[in-house]
Protein 1
Amino acid sequence: KQEVTQIPAALSVPEGENLVLNCSFTDSAIYNLQWFRQDPGKGLTSLLLIQSSQREQTSGRLNASLDKSSGRSTLYIAASQPGDSATYLCAVEGSNYQLIWGAGTKLIIKP
Amino acid sequence: SAVISQKPSRDICQRGTSLTIQCQVDSQVTMMFWYRQQPGQSLTLIATANQGSEATYESGFVIDKFPISRPNLTFSTLTVSNMSPEDSSIYLCSVVVTGVSKQFFGPGTRLTVL
């Protein structure tokens, strides 16, 4: 059974710092891995999707990597801003589009 | 992409009552799902909403408690029946758009059961 773990559970850093969020999964047989952002009172926003055949994806200040063999993904946020404060969730997709979710990392960027 | 709306956005309900949550998508989608996010927890898949047939439920979820309808390709409802405080959660629908591999999520329905 696939299990997804995110470390750390919470992170608070000053504005401007670069930071890394970690996601690990137990079963390497995945179709893709997605990183989402969840803001309080709002829905989920898909940030990056990495197909199982890819190693990384980039969007603006965000870079996500995937190492299937070791069951790990990282989300790198460059030059963090207070607007980046949110909960970041990773999810792996198995069969039939079903997503298995990590518990999330709550990120606070201090001005 | 897809624009997904959910109604209601939030509700406060009494124990023992039922609430039906609607999910509407602006385009035809391949698949629709319902998730639950309990306070402080991550998302858990409740079921896959199948068009014109019974939903496919995950372990721990049953049709009597969470009846689901999907009468067409763009609309689905989830009912939370005979509610208890343990049902207080955010309920989200998600869709897979035809030809696009990633899922899109609705804004969620925040349910509080007293």
Note: Chain B has no helices and eleven strands.
Protein 2
Amino acid sequence: DVKVTQSSRYLVKRTGEKVFLECVQDMDHENMFWYRQDPGLGLRLIYFSYDVKMKEKGDIPEGYSVSREKKERFSLILESASTNQTSMYLCASSLSSYRAGGTEAFFGQGTRLTVV
Amino acid sequence: AQSVTQPDIHITVSEGASLELRCNYSYGATPYLFWYVQSPGQGLQLLLKYFSGDTLVQGIKGFEAEFKRSQSSFNLRKPSVHWSDAAEYFCAVSSNTGKLIFGQGTTLQVKP
């Protein structure tokens, strides 16, 4: 089974802190994603990475950055946390569409981040 | 850029009744389409997917969806809803680069 592991289930941080959310997948997937999920807004894509060191902005990248130094790990960074970044953060991975013609994404359990 | 619209934020159906959840997408080429379900406090689970071929796709838990290119739609259906189907349902579209975009979600409530 594909496993996508997020480092924390719950996180509380202070305004202005630099926050790192880590995600690791064990199935050699090329694609990795970071979403935030808020009630009534669904899942909004923050960043998408299609290969090591390659990234593409999603719909809401402001206030976030990402790092992908190794294929299996994708980090989301909040440079200076703010209260409006309090949310559920979901990481996902999938095979490259060029390799498999398109496959579904597999999700981690999520990190609920509270910024106080 | 691709996008997904789920017009119904909240739907209530009686147990045993049929269900249809709407999904409209925008994408210039042939899309890859998905439906996911999220039960309260749980992660996302794939219900079904469309990549090519037969436009009527069967999924898990008795769900099916039909891809209609002319209407840019991928509606989810179930002939008879069970109380355990109460959850939030998300439609998603993937580009040929793998970028995956979700709709806002539809919350399904099932009345006994």
Note: Chain B has a mean pLDDT of 93.
